[in-house]
Automatic annotation (TrEMBL):
Transmembrane segments: none annotated. Keywords: Decarboxylase, Lyase, Pyridoxal phosphate. Belongs to the Orn/Lys/Arg decarboxylase class-I family. The keyword NADP does not apply. InterPro entries: Orn/Lys/Arg_deCO2ase_major_dom (IPR000310), Orn_Lys_Arg_decarboxylase-I (IPR052357), Prn/Lys/Arg_de-COase_C (IPR008286), Prn/Lys/Arg_de-COase_C_sf (IPR036633), PyrdxlP-dep_Trfase (IPR015424), PyrdxlP-dep_Trfase_major (IPR015421). The lineage of its organism: Eukaryota, Viridiplantae, Streptophyta, Embryophyta, Tracheophyta. This is Orn/Lys/Arg decarboxylases family 1 pyridoxal-P attachment site domain-containing protein. Gene3D superfamilies: Orn/Lys/Arg decarboxylase, C-terminal domain, Type I PLP-dependent aspartate aminotransferase-like (Major domain). Pfam families: OKR_DC_1, OKR_DC_1_C. Residues 35-54 are annotated as: Disordered. One of its GO terms (molecular function) is carboxy-lyase activity. It comes from Musa acuminata subsp. malaccensis (Wild banana). The keyword Transit peptide does not apply. Its cofactor is pyridoxal 5'-phosphate.
Amino acid sequence: MISSPTTFPTNLRTLPSVDRRPSVHVGWRRRHRNPDTCAYPTKKQATAESTEDDNYGGVAPYATNAPFVSALMAFAERDAAYFCFPGHNGGKAAPAMLSQLFGPDVFTYDSTPLPWIGNLFSSEGPLTAAQKLAAEVFGSSETWFLVGGSTCGVMASIMATCSPGDFLVLPRNAHISATHAMVLSGAIPKYITPEYSSLWDVAGGVTPSQVETAIEELKEVGKRAAAVLITSPTYQGICCKIDEITKLCHSHGVPVIVDEAHGAHFKFHPRLPMTALEQGADLVVQSTHKVLSSLSQSSMLHMSGHRVDRERVRRCLEALQSTSSSYLLLASLDAARAQLSENPGAILGKAMEMADLARLQIGRIPGLSILDASCFSSDFPDMDPLRVTVGVSRLGLTETCSCQTKKQAAAESAEDGGYGGADPYATNAPFVSALMALAELDPACFQFPGHNRGKAAPAMLSQLIGPDVFTYDLAPIPRIGNLSSSKGPISDAQKLAAELFGSSETWFLVGGASCGVMASIMATCSPGDFLVLPRNAHISATHAMVLSGAIPKYITPEYSSLWDVAGGVTPSQVETAIEELKEGGKRAAAVLITSPTYQGICCKIDETTKLCHSHGVPVIVDEAHGAHFKFHPRLPMTALEQGADLVVQSTHKVLSSLSQSSMLHMSGHRVDRERVRRCLEALQSTSSSYLLLASFDAARAQLSENPGAILGKAMEMADLARLQIGRIPGLSILDASSFSSDFPNMDPLRVTVGVSRLGLTGFKVNELLCEEHGVIPQFEGMRSVTLVFNWGTSMEHTERLITALSHLSTRFLDENRSQNQVGSGAITPFAGFRRELSPREAFFAKKRKVNIGESLGEICGELICTMPPGIPVLNPGEVITREALDYLQDARNKGAVIMGAADPRLSSMLVCSE
């Protein structure tokens, strides 16, 4: 039992000094706390040690050329008490079947984005350093890591070059992501028909003359090409004359995008074709997992030169990527790049020797033939020597044979309980079972990903997350399917999730809750439709309005200046918004509610849904922070139980799936199911990670057992922490009484601690807790920190948290008693906002950069927020006010990270031109 605060030790020496950490890999130097103070290294001390340890901590020499991997290793060596996402808590609460499948190390490195490591939106730190090293290796002026596959890169490239009504020149055999990008950007296609070989049923590339003809045909009717997209190499490895095409396009002032998803390896052997970057392309998308060795769904976008607006590319990527990007995928990109810095030529040379041998021998087999450039009349300069396409039509294999094979496979599958002979514990997890059955085979793999089940995995990555992961990181295969499959183990796993969570249909999301929010809004709102939503909605809602063309009708939530925290919205506020639209001759197409908020504040969803349905308006609930609500009687009712139509949940936040994995649930028939499905297809990767998908299935199976008992223990610890922390002088606990509105519930697993009476900001308290006490909160604000309890939270860590906060009280309360509390409470983030343009209009409008002092009264051209939680202070299309600038400057001065701004220092801003 924890002693009362009055008897708390003022010296942390009394904390247990036993090293309870799991063993680390050979060669790692452990970073222990100071034995005299039990404190973790301070920032200055960590910086000094970091310099000695090659910048990111004491890691094995092989990782010194991989800044992100090194930072992740150094972080994992700390015996931190996690009060943050993900819910598996470093593996302590990971589903048993998933730990047995992947090994325990995966969970150690699957972390929430951490301030000192950063995320995809960071402007500095190890992740930025890793991207800069990638740019050097691949020969770009800038490189961005992608956790949504090359699909994300193609879409961002088209959106960055084409505004609504612009023409995009592209081959008719471009990847579906190009079509989705045109749907989202409003670009109009000018198709080029590639040469097609009916003998092979294969399309080739496009020629420079075809591109020139397309550009000239547009000019003849008074139009111009905004960009040209080329697919090179094609799936079969056919390359186009990119150098001639880029010279031609640049002579017309047109930028060139190359979908080089299948050619990320070209730069690393003299026999391989020249890369698109070497041939002058402006934007190049590469799937780093296809032939190279990163994990599935990880890719890169490269930029060269200045023909494309870098800031617009960045804004497009922010709109398309998850704010909870997977550290596993990011680490794999860093490790794959480091591997390429060694001796890739020798490795690729051996692969080419084997491909040459196969090509020669297969070509001699009666009835078989090999695709080469002579199969086309067009002059295609190169073919990828690592692609071997075998013609089989002369063997007379028909669809009938295929059907017989399918019947045989189905019979075998039935004998094996549906998906093969998997371990009994996985029988309630169809996707995991299928993956295990597949792994039991020893096939010769001539498919993606390039690590080939771990045989070519980067050594540092294999040592980091263990070798077993690569066995299950597979390209989508017919026997298992992908997210678009209408039947099979993924579909079955989603149906089981729907049963458990109480929906009529559930979709797995590998792009985080952001993807679910965006798909929900796009599925309910067409261009010009009005969306009713709270002003503190997640940035993904703004991005969805950019992509869908919806127009916001904002509700201002109650804001507590004492806490610098916004609450939820009330049914009466929603009704007022709907009625105001009606009075103006408009109607709401949908209502979006955020419940619970980051701090766990819940809205009256039942009343709101009844009200909205009486007006014929569907309700979307961003329940990202409430996926666990259904699994204990003390928890609030779920949004599905309260009648919501579409509900987005982050399965990784408190539950135990891997980061970046979420679910979208649907109930009833008010929303068009097929439109939801199409929106998800437009936003999700076609190379979806089997690792993330397996974690959904395993987490759902884990919840089917006895979640109430486990969550009950977590709530007991949260209750104890709330009671003890509330007694510590200078600290306070956020509860419903902090707001005048009647919010019915708060998540008992969220504990928000007010720290302003210590004379400290939440940012400073977060820093002290992390660096000196090994306690990691989930969220820090100007006046508080928010802690997340989950079923991996231990009593030892809860004691450490309480002791650490008591220590901070003793240390700072008297010292700062005579000083004013942090913050005046007079500056609010939502004061006086006014919209002049829709988010979509502002996003695609021309921009100019102005000094911050000259921005007042201008129309904001970018989305600017503090991170976390990712709630906009300024949206694109809103008038820049003094209140907004003061809040942003105040937040930045106190330690907040500014996200979305082209200039994170806020010395300048992008505004919409006249």
